[in-house]
Design a protein that fits this description.
167 residues; alpha+beta; 5 helices
């Protein structure tokens, strides 16, 4: 599991940031095309991408699917508060969520809720079935839950905008 809190910060220069910006627009972009668009030598682009992968700045290359186009128009966040918890039950809970293909996102959080998950469903009945299965299987530890249906997505950028933020 990824421990975000203790991750060291990596210093990126303007060339690294430009390469990352181009890859965030199209992860399939060739090294030659990145070199042309960034005006950075091809060998340097290849070296820098390899370095960024080894430093875990680039964790993976992925395709972002449109759930609606695949027959899952219901896409909802579910916030879950747990109680009566022990380490074994929590591991079972997380393993169950991770194994469920309709649960597309699982994170442990701080604050009012303990976990946030995202469920992709074919319709509201299917969403209700998935949520009921989770609630019934873990009724001894789920104290409360709340869900938010995603109506419109306005931004999804995998943090690329943070590269130019001065903090």
């Amino acid at each position: 599991m990824n421990n975000i809190i203790s991750s060291p910060s990596i210093k990126l220069d303007s060339k690294d940031k430009k390469i990352l910006e181009l890859l965030s627009q199209d992860a399939r972009m060739s090294i030659s095309e990145i070199s042309k668009k960034s005006k950075i030598q091809r060998d340097s682009v290849a070296y820098r991408i390899n370095k960024l992968e080894k430093l875990n700045v680039i964790k993976f290359y992925t395709t972002i699917l449109n759930p609606s186009a695949l027959g899952f128009p219901i896409y909802s966040y579910v916030h879950i508060k747990l109680h009566n918890l022990d380490e074994s039950l929590e591991k079972q809970f997380v393993a169950f969520l991770v194994a469920n293909p309709q649960v597309t996102y699982v994170v442990k959080i701080s604050g009012e809720w303990d976990y946030d998950i995202t469920i992709a469903a074919k319709d509201l009945g299917n969403f209700d079935d998935v949520l009921k299965e989770i609630r019934y299987k873990f009724s001894k530890i789920i104290q409360n839950y709340s869900s938010d249906l995603i109506l419109q997505e306005y931004k999804f950028d995998y943090l690329i905008d943070l590269l130019n933020v001065k903090i």
